[in-house]
Amino acid sequence: GAVVSQHPSWVICKSGTSVKIECRSLDFQATTMFWYRQFPKQSLMLMATSNEGSKATYEQGVEKDKFLINHASLTLSTLTVTSAHPEDSSFYICSARDRRGTGRHGYTFGSGTRLTVV
Amino acid sequence: DAKTTQPPSMDCAEGRAANLPCNHSTISGNEYVYWYRQIHSQGPQYIIHGLKNNETNEMASLIITEDRKSSTLILPHATLRDTAVYYCIVRVDNYGQNFVFGPGTRLSVLP
Lengths: 118, 111
Description:
Chain A has strands at 4-7, 10-13, 19-25, 32-38, 45-51, 57-58, 67-73, 76-81, 90-96, 108-109, 113-117.
């Protein structure tokens, strides 16, 4: 149980275009999901907290107008990188936890999306 | 979240036990110790967690010192597939709280 599916696993896009990344909880419902970003040889850094039915909360230094988050249902959150530039190339990872609080106290992470902007 | 300190890298021979230390001297009484690992180009994978008692599951054992200021993750028989970055994280069990990842320990299991 507690599977988080992230799609796509990798994407290459041209500079200036937008890319949407999906994060789905397959066998549980999540009112909160988290989006992380990981640059090469660095650790995961939290970008934003996605809240079902309300606005996302962004970490300091993360542009909310550039990284659009939509958490329209209890099983799906999306991250859209708008007007992508090469410096946005990174590994994006989502995580979620069953809202019932069951499981291992922790969060399940998606498999990540490798974004390359050329 | 309390800060943790881990060695940046470790090597382990295949088939031997891998013992990964973590210091968390400022841990609070209601904070759990979690271990996750990240294999290259994948999302973090949950390994184990504990509050103050030692824990064991099918993947690993977690030994927490009596004063809870440090812990050790033990992989009893390391395989090449255990090569990964291992993260020790302390946090309260709060649904709405994220995980704060440090640099972790890069474990290399050698044949």
